[in-house]
Amino acid sequence: MNAELLEDFHQQFDIALAKVKNEIGSEHQNWVNGETIKTRSSKEKHCPTDSTIILGKFAQASRKQTDIAIQAAQNAFVQWNLIGWEKRCKLLLNAAKIIHDRRHYLSAVMSLEVGKNRLEAMGDTEESADLIRYYCQIMAKENGFIRQMGRLTPNENVKGHLVPFGVWGVIAPFNFPLALSAGMAAGAMVTGNTVIFKPSNDAPWTGALLNQIFVDAGIPKGVFNLLNGSGSVVGDELVSNPAVDGLVFTGSKNVGMNIYRRFSRMFPKPCIIEMGGKNPAIVTKTADLEAAAEGIMRSSFGLGGQKCSACSRAYIEEDIFKEFMDLLIEKTMAIVVGDPTAKETFLGPLINESAYTSYQSYMESARQDGTVVYGGNVCTGSNLEKGYFVEPAIIKDLQNDHSLVKKELFSPILYVQSVKGFQDALTLANDTEYGLTAGLFSNDKKEIDDFFNSIRAGVTYV
Question: Which of 47, 89, 271, 308 is catalytic?
Fold first, then answer.
């Protein structure tokens, strides 16, 4: 983004932010079968930047209301499937356009609600529209997944046709509250399924805005239903109700595995789960150390490390360890921690008090069992004590089986370790129960080839 476009973005963001701030404290209802439904209870959503600010009050669905929503989605399924993939794509592309048109407003809400800085929030917003467009493009490319097949006789006309399952539960996380929510929901809807959408309790406002986008795009009633509520009520009903035909979830390993084990108890049903990561990066002596330090800093500390794809372990060849660490510390020291809606901020607050408390516990363990190279404290001053602000932290000198090396932390904490060579780094990188992402900084072709052939991760970067 050039300087002129960047300045225009900031101006538009400021305008949107002023509008969003005027709407703080509003009440929000759930949405089932094309209308709002009132509930007996509601839950306040507090701003992570200043926990004394109540961003809104959000209705909490009961188990009975969840069942009603599932029935509404069942009733809407037949007609939604029958309108055909072309019409479904047209409506969903309307939604993608609305997201783009409202991108500054959506980004401002996200920045307040989950603590993303301006550019992170805009990236989330634009990605949500891109994911919707992508699924529509796939449907068009595959002709709605209707394929002519071979025939045994000239009079046969044999076709393969992939058909929708029915009602899908979509359980979304807080860290990409628009992109992952829109992507998971659109993937279900474009193929003819209907959706019960449960946003994260930490991102209900963004979830409500996504619902309004689908309404404004012309999605028929009952096709997309919004239910805010607890995981033990709404989430449990989506998992246990036999009328839910498929489920997609992004979140922690423990919750994801519990869903996976329980969802298909009666008969096989599709269950798509994306869980955590303890993602390594390897830096070899052939790497561009400036680029490596910049990349690892951004991956580790962007959004406070609260991404399943965040780098949390870095293995650096011993010959360049000191030089790399000097660069990494220099870049980490330059990070601006503060109000995520401010133009200059890189690192906003952690999402909630639980994350804030966990960070302090992790750092206590790091000080006791290892070495804190940089940071590791909570932030005070400039009103930062009103929110969940912490310093990015770099730690080392832990045993390889230590929980801080093994466990996904969802905090801005990076573990670094010096290694003798590339093969040692590769062995340590693969020593994890996770396998989500991994990165390599190297200019050696053999190392790059060996990395791609040997790393046990689903998404890899060089």
Answer: 308
Domains 9-149+159-274 and 279-461 share a fold: no
**How does pLDDT run across 332-385, given as a tens digit for each residue?**
999 999 999 999 999 999 999 999 999 999 999 999 999 999 999 999 988 899
Task: Please identify which of the residues 126, 274, 294, 379 carries the catalytic annotation.
Answer: 274
Domain spans, the chain: 9-149+159-274, 279-461
Domain covering 9-149+159-274 assigned CATH 3.40.605.10 in the classification: yes
Treating both helix axes as pointing N-terminal to C-terminal, what angle do 3-21 and 103-114 enclose, rounded to 10 degrees?
Answer: 70
For the domain bounded by 279-461, which CATH number is listed? 3.40.309.10
Tell me the pLDDT tens digit for each residue of 324-341: 999 999 999 999 999 999
Confirm whether pTM is higher than 0.85: yes
Residue 318: active-site member = no
Contacts of 437 (CB under 8 A, 6+ apart): 277, 279, 309, 311, 457, 458, 459, 460, 461
Is 290 annotated in the active site?
Answer: no
